[in-house]
Design a protein that fits this description.
mainly alpha, 58% helix, globular
Amino acid sequence: MQEQFSILGYPALMKTKSDLRKLREAAGLSVRELARQINESHTNVSYWERSGQIPRSDKLASIAKALGVTVEVL
C-alpha cells in the first residue's frame, strides 16, 4: 500500500517503523489514549507502530488531528 501512495503522487507515509511512535510520544499520548481518540483498538495502534504498516486511509486524518500534525507528516 505504501507503494501505491508513492505511485499516486503522495509522499511515502511513515518511512520507518518508529515514525508513528515518535509522533505519538511527542504528542504526549499513550498507545491506549491515541487509540481512544481515533476510535480504534490499542492493539491496532501498537501493530502500526511495530510493523510500519500504514493505517487505513479512513484513520489517517483522525490520527493526524490527535497527534497535532498534518496527514503529510505521517
